Amino acid sequence: VNPDLARERKNATFNPEDLSIILYGKENLELRRKIFKEISEDPNFAKAKMFPTMSRDEVYEEAVRIFGALQRKMKEHGYVKGCFDTYALQHYYYKNAAFIGTYPFSVHTDMYAPTIKGQGTDEQIAEFLPKAETYQHIGTYAQTELGHGTFIRGLETTATYDKNTEEFVIHSPTITSIKYWPGGLGKTSNYAVVMAQLIIDGKNYGLHPFMCQLRDLKTHQPLAGIELGDINRKFGYEVVDNGYLRFFHYRIPRTNMLMRNAKVSKDGEFSRQAIPQVTYLTMSYVRMGIVQEVATLLAQAATIATRYSAVRRQTANSQGIEPQILDYQTQQMKVIPAICTSYAFFFNGFEVRKIYDSVMAAVEKGDVSRLPEMHSLTSGLKAYCSDVSCDLVEICRRSCGGHGYSNASGITRIYQLLVPCCTFEGENTVLYLQCARSLMKFLGKAQKGEELPSSLQFLGHLPDV
Amino acid sequence: PPELMSAVKFDMSTLMTAFQLNALRSVLHVASELQTAQKKVNYETAWNNNLQGLVEAAKMYSVYLVAKFFVSALSASQWESRAKAVLTQVCEFYLVNNILDHSGTFLQNDVLNPSQASLLRTRRIELLAELRPNAVALVDAFDYPDRLLNSCLGRYDGNVYEALYEYAKSSSLNQHQVHPSFHKYVKPMRETL
After folding, report:
1. pLDDT at residue A32, as a whole number
2. Collapsing DSSP states into helix, strand and coil, what is residue A295?
3. How far apart are the C-alpha atoms of A309 and A74, rounded to whole Å?
4. Is A293 part of the annotated catalytic residue set?
5. Cβ–Cβ < 8 Å for A379, A288
6. Which residue of A has its CA nearest to B82?
7. Where are the alpha helices (DSSP H) in chain B?
């Protein structure tokens, strides 16, 4: 070990292990290390080191291969019952094996399956979820369109009910209505949850989720009435086949509309069981995930920048010794905010998760009163945490001087993973405005003396101002 | 609150009061601007003319939330005492640094006065020095293995320069001592000049 780093560790006033236990819990920490050891010793995962020199096709293929090998390994070790119960574990497993923060199946695990769980009826969950958990159905979540993003009421894809055949006719009426960007849509998925405007007898009933089969389950060929493919190269995320999807009057059975929150009967009768905002729960879930994910990416960049700052020496002092750059106040102002913000975001992630879980438990009992709070909270925090993390990772990169620009730093990869977090699941300015709209509504409630949820109770302190 | 107005030293509770008040005043400020604007123009135009203020209010709300969650995690915990002590420093630095990062808003909202901001700047420098000896241990605690970091600079063993040298040698351009482009393009170009 480099003597400077060894000395730093010796002089610390606490044992890092105690802090690791605070962050992960003792059991999880042991499991993380066990998995890491297994992966390090498994030749199946050695080739992944070649990612930076591979073509896009090779990167995609290698990512799919690693994912398959990991699933088998996790099953072999008894880590998986349903893969979605071990979501965090799977992410950790994959990242360690492949050096990258994502994989072509991430929307399948993060959005497709949770949407079935959250928005399907009990019968639909029984039908679709086991197939998703065993990857018989590989799915994605197709909401964003070529010409439409966060403003989801503006989506154009239609699902028109045909009473005669008891089917929905899914159609992309314009070029701007082509589904665009969903991860895994290009080549990986054979199913998608498609968000479309429900139309019955010429009347529009708003946006609803529909299960659409995209490819033949045996041959993986696209089905008739569908055109789909990969959207081509991006700034990063090369392992993911973000895709486009166009429907040409494509028919699906009536029972493929996810009907926990709203139903269409055989004779075309529409009924709603929950408020329309329930449809947006998947987005809140993903935004919560982003809040947690950016904390880990920032912490990785902070780790790299801090260790390097302890090793690197620069500019001789009056005794002719080059000090460690970590001893310069300016360098400290680069790395210490990144370290402290990482910790703040870790704890923030835990709290948001707790709130989300309690809101979901209430929703399952039919209480949807806290959904607006959840929406406001996850919109604001997703935007804020990803903005700040991006800025701080760039500062970490600069804190490594010229070497920070080399892919050898590892920070360039982290930056590529962080940048898209500022635009996917809602561009950050749009999300701040969604949050602000909620704040204005809650302020109105506060002025009327109504009770506010815990994260918004500060608005009730009007007499203090 | 009087304890904030007269503060010459900021403990966690005073700092949190400042965050909360700043978020509240940011929201109230833009709400009042919206209300005034709506007397002259319709709701939509009033909203569009106040977008920057609305974004600022949402940001200050988010800043407040992160601070609140960090402080409440810290106060509710029964952690190992030395780890908790360093986490308390981390938290204080986070709060102070964020107030200073958004000092324009805190001053504009009359949450702080300039001399209090100056006190916080001094405290931030003190905290930098207090955290400096624990910087490496703090990142070690994140427990990221080298394989995940995939970084020559952030290696646990600190053998940075050896790793950078090996990384350079592995460049695909180094597969040939003389790259084929030399004979193909450089030589002919030289001959024509």
Report:
1. 80
2. helix
3. 37
4. no
5. no
6. A14
7. 2-5, 12-38, 43-48, 51-75, 81-101, 103-108, 114-131, 135-140, 146-149, 160-169, 180-181, 187-192
Distance CA A49, CA A98 (A): 7
CA dihedral A279, A285, A288, A289 (to 10 degrees): -140
CB A291 within 8 A of CB A382: yes
| Residue predicted with more confidence, B62 or A95 | B62
Q: Which residues contact A320 (CB under 8 A, 6 or more apart)?
A: none
Determine the Cα–Cα distance for residues A196 and A256; give it in Å rounded to an integer: 13
DSSP H or E stretch at residue B133: none
State the number of CA atoms in the 13 A half-sphere of A160 facing the CB: 15
Comparing CA positions, the residue from A240, A227, A9, A222 lying closest to residue A102 is A240
**Tokens 């403990």 correspond to what residue?**
B11
CB contact under 8 A, A307 and B154: yes
Which candidate in B100, B147, B166 is best for mutational testing of the A interface (most A CBs within 10 A)? B147
Residue A353 to residues A27, A48, A376, Cα–Cα distance (Å): 19, 32, 14
Residue A212 host element (H or E) = strand A203-213
Which amino acid, one-letter code, is at A265? Answer: S
Consecutive 10-residue averages of pLDDT for chain A (465 residues): 97 97 89 81 71 80 85 73 50 61 84 91 96 94 92 92 98 98 97 97 96 98 98 90 98 97 96 76 86 94 98 92 96 98 96 91 85 93 98 98 96 92 93 96 93 92 64
* Sign of the C-alpha dihedral computed for residues A131, A135, A141 and A146 taken in this order: negative
Q: Is the pLDDT of residue B171 over 80?
A: yes
Whether the CA torsion A119, A84, A365, A283 is positive or negative: it is negative
Q: Looking at this predicted complex, what is its ipTM?
A: 0.97
Phi first, then psi, for residue A423 (nearest 5°) are: -120, -30
**Of the candidates B61, B69, B136, which has its C-beta nearest A9's C-beta?**
B136
Token digits of residue A290: 């982003």
Q: For residue A221, what are the CA distances in angstroms to A136, A191, B167?
A: 15, 12, 41
Share of chain B above pLDDT 90, in %: 88
- State the greatest distance between any 2 C-alpha atoms of chain B, in Å, as a whole number: 82
Residues 6+ apart with CB under 8 A from A432: A379, A380, A383, A384, B54, B55, B58, B59
* C-alpha A19, offset from chain centre: 26
Whole-angstrom Cα distance, residue A51 to residue A99? 9
**Maximum alpha-carbon separation in chain A:** 91
Burial of A263 (0-12, 13-18, 19+ CB in 10 A): middle
Which 3-state string (H, E, C) describes B16-53? HHHHHHHHHHHHHHHHHHHHHHHCCCCHHHHHHCCHHH
Spell out a b/e string for B76-108, using b for 16 or more CB atoms within 10 Å of the CB, else e: eeebbeebbebbebbbbbbbbbbbeebbebbee
Of A425, A427, A450, A451, the active-site residue reads A425
CB nearest to A300's CB, from B67, B131, B149: B149
Exposed e or buried b per residue across A212-246, where buried means at least 16 C-beta atoms within 10 angstroms of its C-beta: bbbbeeeeeeeeebbebebeeeeebbbbbbbbbbb
| Residue in B63, B79, B147 closest to A40 by CB | B147
